[in-house]
Design a protein that fits this description.
Elements lengths: L2 E5 L7 H4 L8 E2 L2 E2 H10 L5 E6 L3 H14 L2 E5 L4 E5 L7 E6 L6 H7 L9 E5 L2 E3 L3 H11 L3 E6 L7 E5 L2 E6 L9 E2 L3 E3 L3 H6 L7 H11 L3 E6 L3 E3 L3 H12 L12 H8 L1
Parallel strand pairs: 1-4, 1-8, 4-7, 10-15
Antiparallel strand pairs: 2-3, 5-6, 8-14, 9-16, 10-13, 10-14, 11-12
Helix pairs in contact: 4-7
Length: 269
Amino acid sequence: MRVIILAGGRGTRISEESDTKPKPMIDVGGRPLLWHVMKIYAAQGYDDFLIAGGYKVDVIKRFFYEEAQLAGDLYVDSRKGEMMHFAPKTESWSVRIVNTGLDTNTGGRILRLKPHIGDEPFMVTYGDGVSNVDLSALVACHKANGKTATITAVRPPARFGGISFDGDAVTGFAEKPQTGEGWINGGFAILEPESFDYLARGGDAAALEHALYENLAKEGRIGAYRHEGFWQCVDTLRELRLLQGLWDGNTAPWKLWSDDPAVEAIRAA
């Protein structure tokens, strides 16, 4: 399946970082959020990407262009006018970056990518949320339910931790539980090609949730894979710092890949 990543919004709720770049290009551990999302998919065998850009899409294009051009070692002999690349280390994926419009809504962005999808099911997610979701289990769920769309339902982290009491005495402080809230749509969806029929009714203004998911729900044609594990989007600086802290502490739950090239080569094979 091809993977569509929505990366065209302005990210106004975290404008401290997104004034100069799309939100999916905000760094975590020296790499854009978008890269982290793509690595989650690629680590599980899904490495054919369509990036739906919009706001400052050139920042996304420049990142991938420079990644390809500057990978590996570089030899320059200015006396002879020679330049050569050696042993380039690049990611094992294909990426098409499409400008889907500055003000196009999420469903409209997907609709604009229809010529690149064809008549096959495809995956969709957002460029600002990471998770340790099991994509094989998601695919199996989608095949079993026979629906037009399957979303990944997640439990967002509770905003506050809890306090334990013994009478009036405080006996401890609980960590913020991942299961402290109800289920929400966490992205990481699979759509059948007939989804385009729903999105076409709203054109560029179509919102994925309203134009597609809500209408499918009315018809009983949308399913959900319940993911009990880690999930976190980035809407605020606090959430960005949370992910950065997990990455710096080598405890990032969404890091499903190895930094060892030999291990990654075996996985890819």
